[in-house]
User: What shape does this take?
Amino acid sequence: MIESKETFDTRVLRVGNYLVRAYKHNKTSILFAMYLSEFLRIDVEKSLEKFLIEHGLKIVYVDAEKNKDIPSYVSSINSINIVFLVHNIEKGFPEVIQFLNFKREEFVEHQIKIVFWVNEQELVRISTEAPDFFAFRNRVVEFMETPIIEEFRWSSLVEFAKETDYKSIDEIRHSIDLKEKLLFELSSEDEIRGYLLNSLGVLYDKISDYKKAIDYFEKALQITKKFSDRQDEGSILGNIGVAYINLGNNNIAIEYLTKSLEINLFVFGDKHPNVAISYNNLGSAWLDLGNANKAIEFQTKSLEINLLVFGDKHPDVARDYNNLGEAWRSLGNANKAIEYLTKALEINLLVLGDKHPNVAASYNNLGLAWNDLGNTNKAIEYYTKALEIDLLVFGDKHPKIAIRYNNLGAAWRDLDNTNKAIEYLTKALEIYTSTYGADHPKTKTIKSNLDLLTKK
Assistant: This one.
């Protein structure tokens, strides 16, 4: 059955109700959402996700290009309250179609609740090349409008364009996919394109594709200059600087960060949090260049502003204490580092609670400092606390988890427990390989360390 002659909101509600009923009665629900515009796809997904969460369900995004064997993939992680949203179907052809048809019974066996985003051509191909699977469908719901941007839900689109806060790598990649497709639909809308380009830069930075991040930031910067928006210009220059830090090109980073600081000082004055961010980023760049004293100079300026603006119990103040701790650790003063890092931990625990990523970062950095003092057992204690929090927040496939495993592996290696070191480093390698690929520098470094241990 195909449904299209209802209002947009009615169709979204209908899709949501199909999935909620399947959840309540522990049934399979296979739906196809046929769409024409990324505008509407975004709006449908945001509205649908809100509705499903309110009814106790969770969304898992599935990229068909990366997970061609969709039946096996969703069955392996399925739980009764998960709804899978599948996109990039065409990029997985023809393998996706073959797996859908040959393994169709897995959807029924595991009571899968799933929505396939398809265009008209993709739907026709699935129906003709995987007819047995297609016969299992419950509904095809059409979202085939071609919206005029002035009539579209502008605030919702702007909100999505700016959004960069996602927990998992899959969510980040899903957002990148949507935002990149939107760029093609918005060739003449510079304002929203600017938001999208900057957001894509942030998201690519988060998955460590720093060159691509810089490319998007530079494009966003040109649009910002066109509108003479000095505030956004300062922010984007800062983003480019941070990306260059992550690439290890700190001299170029300092050029961009200095420009960002100059603009922020002009726009906001010398006692504003944005100015503090500029000082903080410059401190990070100088620390990476090995000039810890200059890093401390900038981090101290950041701390002074944030204490003045926010008081002594704010996450930004904790960040400054953390970075000062890292700078003192770089100077070989682990005791002073622990002093600052402990202050950061205390604030983060007080303000953010004991299950927050910032708390995990504090534990991790304290572990590094104690390790520098030669107290490897205490380091392991802190690394383990960091790992436990990050596993809870990010799951077991996130790059942060690989960092924790790597630190634990190195600590156990220092204690001459080769077997335990190999165990943790192997876990770190698996995550990096899955996330970044075998040729990424982080993956190669872990593999090299692991090879040295296995040859002993």
In short: Confidence is low (pLDDT under 50) at residues 148-152. The two ends are 64 Å apart (CA to CA). The chain has 22 helices and six strands.
